[in-house]
Design brief:
The chain is globular, with a radius of gyration of 26 Å. The strands form 4 sheets. A 7-stranded parallel β-sheet has the order 11-12-13-14-15-16-17. The chain has a 5-stranded mixed β-sheet with strand order 2-4-7-6-5, with helices on both faces. Strands 8-9-10 form a 3-stranded antiparallel β-sheet. It has 574 residues and is of the alpha/beta class. Helix content is 45%, strand content 14%. Helix 8 crosses helix 9 and helix 22 packs across helix 23. The chain folds into 5 domains: 84 residues, DNA polymerase, domain 1; 63 residues, 5' to 3' exonuclease, C-terminal subdomain (DNA polymerase, domain 1); 92 residues, Beta Polymerase, domain 2, CATH 3.30.460; 66 residues, 2-Layer Sandwich (Beta Polymerase, domain 3); 237 residues, Alpha-Beta Barrel (TIM Barrel), CATH 3.20.20. Bound molecules: 2'-deoxyguanosine-5'-triphosphate and calcium ion (CA) (2 copies). 2'-deoxyguanosine-5'-triphosphate binds next to helix 11, strand 4, helix 13 and helix 14.
């Protein structure tokens, strides 16, 4: 059996598990395994024949689970787990199930009973009102599916930040192995930390581009080659994402990094400034006539024009040049400034790990504190706790806090904001908590004014500390609910409530523009992961990059403060 055939088993499994909304880290592990297997120069079958399971385990990216499945395939000619998944999902319907509002179950039903097997057929049926009469569907579901189809069309195949980051990292890892590669840097929207990514742009410096171009188009993750040139190539990866590679000489590194990082509007401005000075700026450098006068380093792209260095996240034509001219570029918050994570779930509701496991994982990240913040009774789908259960859970948190040394575990809750703006717990129960997050989990379609009023009244509750995932959106899946964000931020300021930047790449709200506004108003922000497993604690970096795009400094972010100061801030309003 070819390596690519083994790899295909794992590509498929990743896809199926993703469809079933299984743990994204498991999905990624399968993808990584598939990628590594395809990249191997030796045959997997031979490795196994010579050294058995042990030899397989020595291959990078192959862990116990994957090795056992390879063994199963070799011994029995099939992987049971794969076949079981494949049976649940007929071929060709992956695109259908991925449409927001559909999901695997509905896709399967429509596929089996009505022979709907393409998004086009689905749209036609929905538009003709044919879906609403199907048992278990209804007009509302039909409308949601149509909205989903439109959302998908609008998203234009833009990818989530973590997905793009993971793929860029894999490419960098592979290309770095070539001795011809000197510097290598992912640029474009990925480096600017935009919330979604159109394509991956990788910059390499080298005196010998050819072997690099050849290796790039042959990467295991590549599905199609769009262009294979001397210094420029483009490919489509197996997940549908485009990746562009550009090689320039060492002396052009700075200007090329600047050019390919963008944004386009930011680049155009620099180019115009150069023209005024009688210079020319391109990806190869800053030129006066034929002479290169700058662009070896990225700093020079700014200092030559009398500017302070502008971090990539600020290069969006949102006032960065004025600030850089006046030496007013803020010192942006960094991942290392983060002292704790104050929004996470455990097995007690819809998380996968215990309190202790979460605490130990957070401690390993170097955090000083965390807060365990389960759902409350009204969010039944997530196993929300009633007051009695919550108080019992608080006890467990206190016990875990004594047991796990070197990190403080705060007892909190992600309390539902009821449709009338009251919180889901009584004051007596809220009083037992160290930290109260508030969130909308129901009646998303409320009219704007009512929704704004609902959120503002929740902020007026003296126990409310932080308003989390403030727009409720799920990128490419669910539109934000309608709110007057200006009013919400004003109320946050007035009531001393912080607003969350949810670091999960599906959410990433508060968005960058409103972060800028929050900073202006003096509203504190909390960056947290909303982790449902220990692995997800590592999503923090995506929240931090969003904060940086919002020009935020350390002092604007609640969870950069040491524990004692944080506690004071949390209790200030009680
Ligand atoms: P994306 O891929 O849609 O998420 O966004 P970007 O910003 O990565 O855009 P992309 O991949 O089209 O181009 C990468 C960078 O190359 C872009 O940020 C700026 C630079 N660039 C591309 N086209 C132009 C152009 O026509 N003029 C200028 N000045 N720069 C460009
Ligand atoms: Ca790009
Ligand atoms: Ca590109």
């Amino acid at each position: 059996m070819e390596n690519s055939e083994f790899a295909n088993i794992f590509w498929d499994m990743a896809e199926f598990l993703e469809l079933k909304e299984d743990n994204p880290f498991k999905v990624r592990a399968y993808r990584k395994a598939a990628q590594n297997i395809e990249a191997l120069s030796k045959s997997v079958e031979e490795i196994y024949a010579k050294g058995g399971l042990k030899a397989l385990l020595a291959v990078p990216g192959i862990g116990q689970h994957i090795a056992e499945k390879i063994e199963e395939q070799i011994k029995t000619g099939k992987v049971k787990a794969h076949d079981q998944l494949a049976k649940q999902f007929p071929r060709g319907f992956l695109d259908l199930a991925n449409i927001p509002g559909m999901g695997p179950k509905t896709a399967l039903l429509l596929f089996k009973k009505f022979k709907i097997d393409t998004p086009k057929k689905l749209e036609k049926a929905a538009k003709a009102g044919k879906l609403r009469n199907i048992p278990g569907m209804g007009a509302k579901k039909e409308e949601n599916i149509l909205r989903g189809i439109n959302l998908k069309k609008q998203s234009h195949g833009r990818f989530l930040l973590d997905d793009a980051t993971a793929h860029a990292e894999l490419i960098v890892e592979e290309l770095k192995k070539l001795k011809e590669v000197k510097k290598i840097l992912p640029c474009g929207s990925l480096r600017r930390g935009q919330e979604t990514i159109g394509d991956i742009d990788i910059l390499v410096t080298s005196a010998k581009p050819k072997p690099i171009m050849d290796a790039f188009v042959k990467l295991a993750a590549v599905k199609n080659i769009l262009a294979h040139g001397e210094t420029k190539s483009s490919v489509i990866l197996k997940n549908g994402m485009q990746a562009d590679l550009r090689v320039v000489p060492e002396k052009s590194f700075g200007s090329a990094a600047h050019y390919f990082t963008g944004s386009k509007a930011h680049n155009i401005h620099i180019r115009q400034l150069a023209q005024k000075k009688g210079w020319k700026v391109s990806e190869y450098g800053i030129f006066k006539g034929n002479k290169q006068i700058g662009g070896r380093t990225e700093e020079e792209m700014f200092t030559k024009f009398g500017f302070q260095f502008i971090p990539p996240e600020l290069r969006e034509m949102r006032g960065e040049f004025e600030a850089a001219k006046n030496k007013k570029i803020p010192k942006l918050v960094e991942l290392k400034d983060i002292k704790g994570d104050l929004h996470m779930h455990t097995k007690a509701t819809d998380g996968s790990n215990s309190i202790e496991e979460m605490a130990r994982a957070a401690k390993a990240l170097g955090y000083e504190y965390i807060a365990i913040t389960e759902h409350t009774q009204s969010t039944r789908v997530a196993g929300g706790l009633d007051e009695k259960e919550m108080l019992a859970h608080v006890k467990k948190i206190r016990e875990a806090n004594k047991k796990v040394k070197g990190i403080e575990i705060l007892a909190g809750a992600e309390v539902d904001i009821l449709p009338d703006g009251r919180l889901d717990y009584s004051d007596e129960a809220l009083d037992q908590l160290d930290i109260v997050l508030t969130a909308i989990h129901s009646r998303f379609k409320m009219p704007k004014e009512e929704m704004t009023e609902r959120i503002v009244s929740a902020m007026e509750n003296k126990y409310a500390n932080i308003f989390v995932h403030p727009t409720g959106r799920l990128i490419n899946e669910r539109e934000p609910y309608e709110i007057d964000m200006e009013k919400v931020l004003q109320a946050a300021k007035k009531n001393n409530v912080a607003v969350e930047i949810n670091a999960h790449p599906r959410r990433l709200d508060l968005t960058d523009i409103y972060c800028m506004r929050a900073k202006e108003l003096g509203v504190k922000l909390l960056i947290s992961t909303d982790a449902h497993s220990t692995d997800q604690l590592e999503l923090m970096k995506y929240g931090v990059i969003t904060a940086r795009r919002g020009w935020l400094e350390k002092k604007n972010v609640l969870n950069t403060y040491p524990l004692a100061k944080l506690k004071k801030m949390l209790y200030a309003s009680k």
